[in-house]
Design brief:
The protein is an alpha/beta fold and about 425 residues long. It has helices at about 25-40, 50-60, 75-85, 100-115, 130-145, 155-165, 200-210, 215-235, 250, 255-265, 280-285, 290-300, 315-320, 330-335, 340-360, 370-375, 400-410; strands spanning about 20-25, 45-50, 65-70, 90-95, 115-125, 170-175, 185-195, 200, 240-245, 275-280, 305-310, 325-330, 360-365, 385, 395. It has 17 helices and 15 strands. The strands form 2 sheets. Strands 6-7-9-10-11-12-13-14 form an 8-stranded mixed beta barrel. Strand 11, helix 13 (about 315-320) and strand 12 (about 325-330) form a beta-alpha-beta unit. The longest helix is centred in the middle third of the chain and has 22 residues, at about 215-235. This is EAL domain-containing response regulator. GO terms for molecular function: cyclic-guanylate-specific phosphodiesterase activity.
């Protein structure tokens, strides 16, 4: 269910007006990074050889991205990042250091927990291609921010009116088989193109809806559209599944689940083509007994149940034993940097072994580059989802995307 899912940038139109600061005390390495960035087309590149100098520059100028070394002469990079976070500025960070990988991962988590945006990490010497990928991520963050109105705070009444006026739309992100690259499924995401305030991010209105029974109406709105679109895709020859995100309130609300069962019964698709996704934090609510009854009933009727964000909670394995899941979606935090992180590789290998033993499908979400896809495809098991494969898109664009994917499918030759 992971997003920046809302949008994706096309790298052919990347704006190169980002102001970038390179914080590196080693003269040659600083020179190398500055020149590499300029060769990529970014012209506004500043440099600092110490933490104090970097902080002073950030106070005086509006910096977009900082390439931050962690080992500095006056104060370490961790302290610099802490002070930058206190400035409450919109900064994107790329960690670039020769410290131990475990230290780099720990600092990455620290940045993610702050108000800074972590674009990624790289060990020295950083390759130019990797640097380009990390910088491109910043533009995608900017595109997402620019398309979503930051000032509008929707209320329950606003959401209710939007439902009545049918302002919401549904976009779909394709999933492909890691073994052969075949298009196997789509995940449905709600969109709110507000007629006055523009695109409203889901994280601005979903939490509000979850506080009220309106979340049930919102779920059925998505389910109805997703089932209709899936039926149309099946008529055009594609036989795949659609995944729909399920809130805990939806699951334990009998009338909502019955309404969804009826939607499928009245359609031309089968319940086996519907995947219902619950995140770890939702899958084991206080009313666990009611959840179990609901999931058992859905499972009996043929619906597939998926545990999203797998591995981020303390009860991951317990939930697989307790609830009738048929799929796990590995959290993107383990997919990021999996080709270079021993820890992430170990987690992935463990999950693959577990899934095969339990006969569970695995979905790797958040795949943003070919290197990550190539690493994961060596397992030849499970499904892949992410911006590298496709961004969430309107139903009308899915078949056109599929034609393009068939032509350039990077998995088909394995």
């Amino acid at each position: 269910m992971t997003e920046i899912k809302s949008t994706q940038c096309q790298t052919s139109t990347l704006p190169m007006d980002k102001k970038i600061l390179v914080l590196e005390d080693h003269t040659f390495q600083r020179w190398f990074l500055v020149n590499s960035i300029k060769q990529l087309g970014y012209q506004s590149v500043l440099e600092a050889s110490s933490g104090q100098e970097a902080l002073a520059i950030c106070q005086q100028q509006s910096i977009d991205i900082i390439l931050c070394d962690l080992e500095l002469p006056d104060m370490d990079g961790i302290e610099v990042l802490r002070k930058l976070s206190e400035q409450k500025k919109a900064l994107s960070i790329i960690l670039c250091s020769a410290v131990d990988e475990s230290v780099l991962c720990t600092v990455s988590k620290m940045v993610e927990a702050s108000n800074l945006v972590l674009l990624g990490q790289a060990t020295k010497p950083i390759e130019k291609e990797h640097l380009s990928q990390l910088l491109n991520k910043s533009v995608c963050f900017s595109c997402a921010s620019n398309q979503q109105n930051p000032g509008f705070q929707p209320s329950l009444i606003d959401i209710q009116k939007a439902l009545e006026n049918k302002e919401f739309s549904v976009h779909y992100q394709p999933k492909v088989c890691l073994d052969n690259g075949q298009w196997t499924g789509i995940e449905a995401f709600i969109r709110w193109p507000h007629p006055v305030y523009g695109m409203i991010a889901p994280n601005r209105f979903i939490p509000i809806a979850e506080q009220d029974d309106i979340i049930n109406a919102l779920f059925l709105y998505i389910a109805d559209q997703a089932i209709t679109d899936l039926a149309n895709l099946h008529k055009q020859g594609w036989q795949g599944t659609v995944a729909i995100n399920l809130a805990a309130k939806n699951l334990v609300h009998f009338e909502t689940m019955q309404a969804m069962v009826n939607l499928v019964a009245d359609s031309e698709v089968s319940s086996k083509d519907i995947v219902l996704e619950l995140t770890e934090r939702q899958a084991l609510p206080a009313q666990a007994e009611r959840s179990l009854k609901a999931m058992a009933r859905l499972n009996m009727k043929g619906f597939k149940l998926s545990l999203d964000d797998f591995g981020t909670g303390f009860s991951s394995l317990q939930q697989l034993d307790y609830f009738p899941f048929s799929e796990v979606k590995l959290d993107r935090s383990f997919v990021d940097n999996c080709q270079s992180s021993i820890f992430n590789q170990t987690v992935i290998e463990f999950c693959m072994t577990l899934a095969k033993r339990l006969n569970l499908n695995v979905v790797f979400e958040g795949i943003e580059d070919l290197e990550t896809l190539n690493f994961l495809r060596t397992f030849q098991y499970g499904s892949a989802q992410g911006f590298f494969i496709a961004k969430p898109m309107p139903y009308e664009q899915l078949l056109e995307w599929h034609q393009q994917w068939q032509l350039q499918n990077p998995i088909q030759d394995i």
